[in-house]
Amino acid sequence: MSSSVMAPSVTLFPEPKEGIVDQEITTEQAGRVKYDGSYWPARFYDPNCQAKLEPKNAVSVLGIAGITLLVMPINIPETTNAPEQDKITEGDEQKNTLET
Prior knowledge:
The chain is mainly beta.
């Protein structure tokens, strides 16, 4: 009698959904994601992904392999403040009005 280990089949979802990281996910280590009200083991869909996802990061859940979710980072643009030279303070507005 031989024993063989079969890799879990991969099922991709018709549309990605959002999950929230509960335990850190890296290329080397799977983590955990809260998805659809439950906590699931999770790893990167792309094994070459070099991201590091920390708790509370949002992820895109693309599918499932066995009981492990396949995720990718969601790139959320950082909101930055305007550069200092572009900021106009109330005092500057009054000064500009007096100069004209």
